[in-house]
Write a structure and sequence with these properties.
By secondary structure, the chain is α/β, with parallel strands linked by helices. It contains 15 helices and 7 strands. The chain folds into 3 domains: 152 residues, Rossmann fold, CATH 3.40.50.300; 61 residues, Helicase, Ruva Protein, domain 3 (Orthogonal Bundle), CATH 1.10.8; 91 residues, Zinc Finger, Delta Prime, domain 3 (Up-down Bundle), CATH 1.20.272. A 5-stranded parallel β-sheet has the order 2-3-4-1-5, with helices on both faces. The chain has a two-stranded parallel ribbon with strand order 6-7. It is elongated, with a radius of gyration of 24 Å.
């Protein structure tokens, strides 16, 4: 699905960016002084890195910002040619106006090869008077040290639940859709602070109807609902009913078509909401990680998921104080 609502509701001003207050204040100072160093934006996806770069360009250049802002995605072309051709061609020409430099925004820069990054380092040095670079990445450790030392590093954090829900409520009001509070909480639980993913999930749910609840959100996401996971854990971890829990798990895998990986992730989240003695919780999480690794390495999914249910049933006998249902 295209990011229609993401683009439609993207903030265009620095002051509209939520959850990154310290970063926004620094960017405002650059815009006010009409000057900036090379920048490195690092952090999880959907936290405002691209939006911040665009908002900074608008603050610097005004209405004609698109002529002086060139966006490239390094995951499309990872080799040295992107540096030798597209980047150099744009960087070598001087801009007009009161800002003496243009901006190249290189998204997903951690996808560049080592050779391309080395060439980029030299380009950043050579054309620094006429061009500033903003590099965006999920993992700054994948950017070579010579580039990191030439940039001012901004570390973006995942957005809080309040920040995400506030924006989603604004969008739902403008789109005239009825979303209950549990649905907003479900979106945040699934997306974990990724605003782009949260908006896309809300858009997908809205295509299923104008009234949205938590069940709609889980159906739109293709993930098992929290109620399903609670049911599975109650049968195995609380009631000690291995065969009943196994039958329910089989239904989730076959009839509903959920993947083992998604079920494991949802179980992991739900376990921390339950009243389980800490020493037993540690053992369960350790077993969960082991089974998740085995499946990712190609082990039989059904056998390992049965083993997980068996282990949860075993732990039910070790829990003295039953989990509150």
């Amino acid at each position: 699905m295209e990011d229609i609502w993401v683009e439609k509701y993207r903030p265009v001003k620095l002051e509209d960016i939520k959850g990154q207050n310290f970063i926004v204040e620094r960017l405002k100072a650059y815009a006010k002084n009409k000057n900036m160093p090379h920048l490195l934006f690092a952090g999880p996806p959907g936290t405002g890195k691209t939006t911040s770069a665009i908002a900074l360009a608008i603050a610097l250049y005004g209405e004609n910002w698109k002529n002086k802002f060139h966006e490239l995605n390094a995951s499309d072309e990872r080799g040295i040619d992107i540096v030798r051709n597209q980047i150099k061609d744009f960087a070598r020409t001087a801009p007009s106006g009161d800002v003496p430099f243009k901006i190249i925004f290189l998204d997903e820069a951690d996808h560049l090869t080592a050779d391309a990054q080395a060439a980029l380092r030299r380009t950043m040095e050579k054309f620094s008077k006429t061009c500033r670079f903003i590099l965006s990445c999920n993992y700054s450790s994948k950017i070579i040290e010579p580039i990191q030392s030439r940039t001012s590093v901004f570390r973006f954090r995942s957005l809080t639940e309040d920040d995400v829900i506030e924006r989603l409520k604004y969008i739902s009001q403008n789109e005239k859709i009825d979303v209950d509070e549990d649905a907003f909480k479900a979106i945040y639980a699934i997306t974990n602070g990724d605003m782009r993913k949260a908006i896309n999930l809300l858009q997908a749910a809205a295509s299923m109807g104008r009234e949205i609840n938590a069940d709609t959100i889980y159906r739109a996401s293709g993930l098992p609902s929290r109620e399903m996971i609670k049911n599975l854990l109650e049968k195995s971890l609380i009631d000690g009913d291995f065969l009943g829990a196994r039958d329910f798990l089989t239904k989730m895998l076959t009839e509903n078509g959920f993947s083992a990986d998604d079920i494991i992730k949802q179980i992991h989240s739900e376990l921390f909401r339950m009243n389980i003695p800490e020493e037993i919780l540690i053992e369960i999480i350790d077993k969960l990680a082991e089974i998740n690794f085995m499946i990712s390495e190609g082990a039989d999914e059904r056998i390992n998921m049965d083993a997980l249910v068996a282990k949860l049933t075993f732990y039910s006998r070790k829990i003295e104080n039953k989990v509150e249902k």
